[in-house]
Amino acid sequence: MQVTTGVAAMAVGYAAFRYMSSPKSANHAYFDGKAVWVTGASSGIGKELCRQLVEKSKGVRLILSSRKEETLREVKEELVAAGARAKDVAIVTLDLGDKETLEAAVERAFKAFGSVDVLVNNAGISQRSLARMTSPVVYDRLMEVDYVGQVYLTQFYLHKMVETKDAEGHIVFISSVAGKIPVPFRSGYCAAKAALDAYASTIRIELELECRPIAVTVVSPGGVRTAVSKNALNKDGEAFGEADAVTAEGMAVDECVGQMIRGISNKVDDFLVCSSLERFAYRLFSYLPLRTATKTILPKYKKYLDATLAKVAS
Ligand SMILES: NC(=O)c1ccc[n+]([C@@H]2O[C@H](COP(=O)([O-])OP(=O)(O)OC[C@H]3O[C@@H](n4cnc5c(N)ncnc54)[C@H](OP(=O)(O)O)[C@@H]3O)[C@@H](O)[C@H]2O)c1
């Protein structure tokens, strides 16, 4: 009893500290005139981030990346219609699953505007399948796209930045609450995002140790209403094809991106963008024994999970 009260008091204290130290507003001027490279710019969070940067920051230059050149061209047209100058929007197609090509992609991105001030590692692919039924190749694919590809891009970005002594940079990872707590049907995705979090925390401390002016921000959204669930891999590595309840009832993408910009523009190390239930789950798994956290959260999430369980278990 005493232990539980102590843990609860620590959790409340820490939550209050996080709230007090969390930036209350976005600093849109942070992006003024900066070259910002957004991977996964063809859809969802990445596309909306580009739109809000054009709308709210002056003279921002954007490098749009994903696999689909035609879709990126359409996004560029939309950004120009929203006020961007065509010469300030470049397209660099890349496939994060094809790691041999990523050094050349970084070269092309740096060539677009001479440097890259902010790299937003946003592209990613999710999963909707029961672990016991999932083909091992699905784990390869999730690790390649959600972890290895992002690390390659970041490594080559760092090489370019340290070539220019004192170059100020900022590396952003769009991770997930699923990288911090277990979320059913996403075993490979949770593992890849957790690995990305660990990599980000380690390079942040190394960059500070070396006094390099390169910030590292991890943004972890909860469910957001994008095509992520539709594009997620099923047990055979095919598209899941529909929105599960966590995504369908998630945050609107414009609200998510508005909050993300608050964290990124204030160079927050680790920034959660999620519902109060997702934040509660995150706190449970941070402070309570795993068994207690699991037993507490399962009934609360049941309504979100049952329909998907019926689908993925058949
Ligand atoms: N929506 C959510 O509920 C949620 C929650 C937490 C975290 N996140 C994270 O947020 C990020 C963006 O997701 P989203 O919700 O915007 O999903 P989305 O609408 O499916 O967008 C995913 C983006 O990633 C790109 N992408 C996928 N595979 C790629 C590859 N192999 N190489 C290069 N680009 C690739 C896609 O572009 P192409 O298909 O054109 O290549 C697309 O632009 C992801 O990292 C995701 O894990 C999303």
TrEMBL record:
Species assigned in the record: Chloropicon roscoffensis
InterPro entries with a match to the protein in the record: KR_dom (IPR057326), NAD(P)-bd_dom_sf (IPR036291), Sc_DH/Rdtase_CS (IPR020904), SDR_fam (IPR002347)
A Pfam family that the UniProt record links to this protein: adh_short
Listed GO CC annotations: membrane
GO MF entries: oxidoreductase activity
UniProt-recorded name of the protein: Short chain dehydrogenase
Keyword Membrane attributed: no
Role noted for this protein: Putative oxidoreductase.
Family: Belongs to the short-chain dehydrogenases/reductases (SDR) family.
Alphabetized UniProt keyword annotations: Oxidoreductase
Residues annotated as domain Ketoreductase: 34-227
